[in-house]
Design a protein that fits this description.
Elements: H1 15-27, H2 34-47, E1 51-55, H3 58-68, E2 76-80, H4 85-93, E3 97-101, H5 112-118, E4 123-126, H6 138-148, E5 151-155, E6 163-164, E7 167-168, E8 175-179, E9 192-196, H7 199-208, H8 217-220, H9 242-253, H10 255-272, E10 278-279, E11 295-299, H11 308-317, H12 333-339, H13 347-355, E12 356-359, H14 367-380
Parallel strand pairs: 2-3, 2-4, 4-5, 5-8
Antiparallel strand pairs: 1-9, 6-7, 8-9, 10-11, 11-12
The structure holds pyridoxal-5'-phosphate (PLP).
């Protein structure tokens, strides 16, 4: 058994990233400014989108993305139940109702036919979530959106490198929301990015991200003299700091290198974890690119007595950290109480939620770390 605990999703920062943060701290400007602007420009180019707004979390990006899509009081937004709470919570923050729908058992992504079935005259938007970094079927989702005149706000928290039919998912519009939280593929400690192709809506989002002010701080205190600002709207405090962007710029510069490392680990797991009572990730659709954000296995409770929770505990006993992405959202107390969801409503999300476990996939895992993970899993099922 390994001697030290292998932490799930621990980020790693190199000298360039650390030095950039130090330079920023010494520069006299630590909040939103030139580095945030550069990070936005670099990210926009990477994704192939028209506009980018850096914010302080993926949740902030989702909230602003929904508002930019025009979501407000009385509206409904279709969200998969197999996701993190922030996807639906932000719909609630807009005064709207999240309508949770079921997903596909193999891809864990939202099921297009369930979207169609959930549309009502109040539906305003659809929120596809690219689970673990696997692209949703964007053609089918856009066809539904166009037919019913709905906006698409993508939750791309897991999907910086994800491509659908050869293009980054964020390039597809209307809005895409990324997370740079500590365990993500690109880490700014906390952080996020809103991508969009509607210039006016993105301009409004920028103002909303900083109290709804007409002039941001960098331009207010700039070398050309102090500028007055006005509150055009009652906005939020969602702006990214240059300290965070200092990490982001260099993390983005090596994102492909990290992706290749995770891809290699992914294929090792696919090979070494065959023949166990676990379901491995489904094949990747031809023409798509998986972000390899999370390697999730499903404990095959039909063929083993080990439950998912026992598996998590057994992994911890063997000094291996794990995660659960996710337990079905509609069964969490807030969603049960507020919208009356109950067991059996969304069977595929529940089925995954009871069986899923994520194992370490960080790019800095050594060959020995990966072998320890494989050995631990084999040992549990021996
Ligand atoms: C699917 C999904 N959406 C949204 C978020 C929220 O991102 P953040 O933590 O950056 O606010 C997360 C993760 O944290 C996530 O996994």
């Amino acid at each position: 058994m390994r001697a030290t605990f292998l932490r799930f999703g621990a980020p790693q920062f190199n000298a360039k990233e650390i030095n950039e943060v130090v330079k920023t701290l010494k520069s006299g400007w630590v909040t939103t400014g030139p580095k945030t602007h550069r990070f936005e420009e670099d990210f926009k180019k990477y994704v192939g989108a028209e506009h980018a707004l850096a914010v302080n979390s993926g949740t902030a990006a989702l909230h602003l993305g929904l508002l930019a899509a025009g979501v407000g009081k009385g509206d409904e937004v279709i969200v998969p139940a197999m996701t993190f709470g922030a996807s639906a919570n932000t719909v609630v923050h807009c005064g709207a109702t999240p309508v949770l729908v079921d997903c596909n058992r193999a891809t864990m992504n939202i099921e297009p036919k369930e979207i169609e079935a959930a549309i009502t005259p109040r539906t305003k938007a659809i929120m596809p979530v690219h689970m673990a970094g696997r692209a949703c079927d964007m053609d089918e989702i856009f066809t539904i959106a166009r037919k019913h005149n709905l906006k698409i706000v993508q939750d791309a928290a897991h999907a910086v490198e994800t491509e659908y039919k050869g293009k980054k998912v964020g390039a597809y519009g209307n809005f895409a929301c990324y997370s740079f939280h500590a365990i993500k593929n690109l880490v700014t400690a906390e952080g996020g990015m809103l991508i969009g192709n509607d210039a006016e809506a993105m301009k409004r989002s920028r103002a909303l991200s900083l109290h709804g002010m007409s002039v941001d701080a960098w331009n207010r205190y700039g070398t050309s003299g102090y500028k007055h600002y006005e509150h055009i709207e009652a906005g939020f405090k969602y702006n990214m700091m240059d300290i965070q962007a200092s990490l982001g710029i260099h993390q983005l510069a090596r994102i492909e290198q990290n992706w290749k490392k995770r891809k290699k680990i992914w294929h090792t797991y696919m090979k070494e974890l065959q023949g166990l009572p676990i379901v491995l990730p489904a094949p990747i659709r031809a023409g798509d690119r998986h972000a390899y954000h999370m390697f999730t296995v499903l404990i095959d409770t039909d063929t083993t007595n080990v439950t998912r929770d026992q598996f998590l505990n057994e992994m911890a006993k063997r000094n291996i950290g794990t995660g659960v992405h996710f337990r079905a959202l509609h069964l969490h107390p807030y969603y049960r109480k507020t919208y009356g969801y109950k067991e059996g409503d969304l069977p595929n999300a529940e089925w995954i939620g009871d069986r899923t476990a994520s194992i370490p996939l960080s790019p800095h895992l050594t060959g020995k770390d990966v072998k320890d993970v494989v050995d631990a899993i084999r040992n549990i099922f021996k």
